[in-house]
């Protein structure tokens, strides 16, 4: 029998049309013809694992179109030669540092001309999409007459997350093809569209398994596949008055998600559609100018920077992970969810605990999670559940390549667990802890193989939080650190390497921010006003709401630990806060914390007064000051890792590209002066860190 792990990871075999014996004429494309005289243009961008659109790729497509216009085939198929997917969008690196909108507009006009030419071909053109078709990739597919989706494919316009909107004719083509309100909603949110929904919307014309691609293509070339046509009602929605009304509502909804003061792209997109919807030529022209203006904006440059930070962290774990079997100790909130996620990502997982109930609870939660994230793929759900084995006795420990401990946060308990585990583990296996606060040096005392002991600090909830702090200590072997990062990246999580230190990066930098908010409550400032001040800065939620989301018990435990471990001036934690925790008012999870929570939402009083101008800096600068301190102390030597950890682990305002980058953009000297002024007014806790001189250097 084949190994289920290997089967899961095996690349699929794609039907890429006939092979050619002659040397290729193109660097990135392969052009062949099948027996029915259908041309297959297969994009397999040289030197990379995923296709992106760049100038050279489009110029080659232009040459292919030259050839097809002279020697007309019966039809044209465009598909990708990469196992992972179709085209992942434009190569954003080409926009880094762009400052001249005119130059961008000229570049976009050239690209538009090539894609318009593809659309104008008079033979049937078919995009065959497997895996993903994103951004510019989807825009190429939209310029074809028909779209065939291979089962499991997904589609989306993630441009807004980069501070942009579609720029290769996508706004016009997408709003033309399907219900324009739905099209706008997908472009405004960047949400992924899976096959069933894509078919229902009319974005794709047929969904087939890979083995039926060839016959679907032949049917398309013979004119037997009907392309989706927008309905009468869809067109009515694009009529002038209806469009203006819809645009006003879209603006209002967007304000709640991405305020216009910080995120210009959604509003530029709404303006475009409101002004030119229904007039393709005008819309495409205006789209180029609007896109060019956005690319050079500070928000887009910073959001592109965030995209590159994500790539950088991914790259830190780029080696192929050798870990196939994982045993998790402790099936509570974290252990259960870590186990579920590992099984979902194709690993064989055993899950242990001292009691059966938490294991049963974790398996139930896993089934619920898979039901949500499988998009109806029952087979994938069942396979993942098959890979997740309850293991009360701990039989899996002996076979595991990695054992992750997620038992309660008590040093002695964790050490006694290791004493039982280590002798049973394979000598080559890695032992990891999910501790959020205990120094690894303390936990590794008494281990036979401390060099194979590492921290893997996952965040809650594991299925949504992208960051994992990979915690090293003096005695950690280099290959184990490499393997731990590769394991994290293999789980589609972002590994941030950090040195063992109290609170690592995220909890340490968040704590002064949360405690300052508590100090403001003590001063009598309304909670809603405090949250508003942070949101005005660009945080997705304010500190009071965040503390409730994390859990007041956890915040308090981290703050106490940091005060114990560090010689650090921090606002006192007031008695009323401790009493709240003792009374079980822990935040969202218990229904009440600093706010009362209903249906997962904090109930906030209306009419909060405007925040005092000092408040934003009072909240945010201590967090940034701590980030500078973390750099000075070498908890990480890389400002990018600190910035990325705060964005992906704590939600730091993404359009500011991280706390340290923000400080640089604002001016390091200015930030330091501001901290000094706040120190005079509010006390030592605002004293600038030594880390600033390092950053200034
Ligand atoms: P939890 O209390 O929800 O779960 C702990 C589980 O460990 C329980 O099911 C318990 O029965 C089990 N357990 C107790 N003794 C055990 C033993 N000797 N052997 C095996 N299992 C045992 O705790 P949690 O919130 O999941 O936290 C676990 C770890 O993760 C802690 O180190 C915590 O600091 C860390 N962490 C927690 C969060 C969070 O938000 N909860 C976030 C990041 C990290």
TrEMBL record:
Main enzyme class: lyase
Superkingdom field: Bacteria
Transmembrane segments: none
Pathway membership: Lipid metabolism; fatty acid beta-oxidation
Domain 3-hydroxyacyl-CoA dehydrogenase C-terminal: 503-597
GO molecular function: (3S)-3-hydroxyacyl-CoA dehydrogenase (NAD+) activity; 3-hydroxybutyryl-CoA epimerase activity; enoyl-CoA hydratase activity
Catalytic activity: a (3S)-3-hydroxyacyl-CoA + NAD(+) = a 3-oxoacyl-CoA + NADH + H(+)
The keyword Lyase is assigned to this record: yes
Presence of the UniProt keyword rRNA-binding in the record: no
EC numbers: 4.2.1.17
Matching InterPro entries: 3-OHacyl-CoA_DH_CS, 3-OHacyl-CoA_DH_NAD-bd, 3HC_DH_C, 6-PGluconate_DH-like_C_sf, ClpP/crotonase-like_dom_sf, Enoyl-CoA_hyd/isom_CS, Enoyl-CoA_hydra/iso, FA_oxidation_alpha_subunit
SUPFAM superfamilies from the UniProt entry: 6-phosphogluconate dehydrogenase C-terminal domain-like, ClpP/crotonase, NAD(P)-binding Rossmann-fold domains
All copies of domain 3-hydroxyacyl-CoA dehydrogenase NAD binding, residue ranges: 326-498
UniProt keyword list: Fatty acid metabolism, Isomerase, Lipid degradation, Lipid metabolism, Lyase, Multifunctional enzyme, NAD, Oxidoreductase
Family, as annotated: Belongs to the enoyl-CoA hydratase/isomerase family.
Protein name per its UniProtKB record: enoyl-CoA hydratase
Organism encoding this protein: Phenylobacterium koreense
């Amino acid at each position: 029998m084949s190994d289920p792990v290997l089967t899961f990871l095996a690349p699929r075999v794609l039907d890429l049309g006939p092979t050619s014996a002659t040397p290729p004429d193109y660097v990135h494309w392969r052009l062949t013809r099948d027996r029915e005289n259908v041309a297959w243009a297969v994009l397999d961008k040289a030197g990379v694992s995923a296709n992106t659109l760049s100038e050279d790729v489009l110029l080659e497509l232009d040459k292919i179109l030259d050839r097809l216009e002279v020697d007309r085939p019966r039809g044209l198929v465009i598909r990708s030669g990469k196992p992972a997917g179709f085209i992942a969008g434009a190569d954003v690196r080409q926009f880094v540092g762009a400052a001249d909108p005119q130059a961008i507009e000229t570049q976009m006009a050239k690209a538009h001309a090539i894609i318009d030419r593809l659309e104008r071909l008079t033979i049937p053109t078919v995009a065959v999409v497997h895996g993903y078709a994103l951004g510019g990739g989807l825009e190429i597919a939209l310029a074809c007459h028909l779209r065939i989706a291979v089962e499991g494919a997904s589609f989306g316009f993630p441009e807004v997350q980069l501070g942009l909107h579609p720029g290769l004719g996508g706004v016009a083509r997408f709003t033309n093809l399907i219900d324009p309100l739905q099209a706008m909603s997908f472009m405004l949110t960047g949400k992924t569209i899976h096959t069933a929904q894509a078919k229902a919307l009319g974005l794709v014309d047929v969904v087939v398994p890979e083995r039926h691609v060839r016959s679907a293509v032949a049917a398309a070339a013979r004119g037997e596949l009907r392309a989706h046509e927008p309905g009468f009602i869809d067109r009515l929605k694009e009529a002038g008055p209806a469009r203006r009304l819809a645009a006003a509502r879209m603006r209002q909804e967007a304000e709640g998600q991405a305020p216009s003061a910080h995120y210009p792209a959604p509003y530029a997109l709404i303006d475009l559609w409101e002004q030119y919807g229904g007039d393709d030529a005008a819309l495409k022209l205006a789209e180029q100018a609007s896109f060019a203006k956005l690319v050079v904006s500070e928000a887009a440059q910073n959001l592109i920077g965030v995209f590159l930070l994500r790539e950088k962290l991914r790259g830190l774990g780029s080696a192929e992970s050798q870990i196939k079997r994982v045993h998790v100790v402790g099936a509570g909130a974290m252990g259960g969810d870590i186990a579920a996620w590992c099984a979902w990502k194709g690993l064989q997982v055993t899950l242990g605990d001292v009691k059966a109930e938490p294991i049963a609870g974790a398996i139930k939660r896993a089934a619920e999670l898979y039901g949500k994230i499988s998009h109806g793929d029952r087979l994938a759900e069942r396979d993942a559940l098959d890979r997740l084995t309850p293991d009360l006795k701990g039989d899996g420990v002996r076979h595991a390549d990695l054992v992750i401990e997620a038992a309660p946060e008590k040093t002695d308990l964790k050490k006694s667990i290791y004493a039982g585990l280590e002798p049973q583990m394979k000598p080559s296996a890695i032992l990891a802890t999910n501790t959020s606060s205990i120094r690894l040096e303390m936990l590794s005392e008494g281990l036979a193989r401390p060099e194979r002991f590492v921290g893997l600090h996952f965040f809650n909830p594991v299925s949504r939080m992208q960051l994992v702090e990979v915690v090293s200590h003096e005695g950690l072997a280099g290959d184990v650190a490499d393997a731990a990062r590769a394991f994290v990246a293999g789980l589609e999580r972002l590994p941030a390497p950090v040195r063992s230190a109290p609170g690592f990066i995220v909890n340490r930098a968040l704590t002064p921010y949360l405690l300052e908010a508590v100090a403001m409550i003590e001063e009598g400032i309304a909670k809603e006003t405090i949250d508003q001040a942070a949101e005005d800065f660009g945080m997705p939620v304010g500190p009071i709401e965040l503390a409730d989301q994390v859990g007041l018990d956890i915040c308090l435990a981290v703050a106490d630990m940091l005060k114990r471990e560090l010689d650090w001036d921090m606002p006192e934690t007031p008695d009323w806060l401790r009493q709240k925790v003792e009374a079980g008012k822990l935040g969202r999870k218990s229904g009440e914390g600093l706010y009362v929570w209903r249906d997962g939402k904090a109930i906030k009083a209306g009419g909060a007064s405007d925040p005092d101008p000092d408040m934003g800096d009072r909240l945010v600068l201590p967090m940034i000051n701590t980030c500078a301190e973390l750099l000075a102390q070498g908890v990480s030597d890389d400002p990018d890792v600190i910035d990325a950890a705060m964005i992906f682990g704590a939600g730091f305002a993404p359009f500011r590209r991280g706390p340290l980058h923000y400080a640089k953009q604002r001016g390091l000297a200015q930030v330091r002066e501001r901290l000094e002024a706040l120190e005079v007014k509010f006390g030592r806790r605002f004293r600038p860190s030594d880390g600033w001189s390092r950053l200034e250097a």
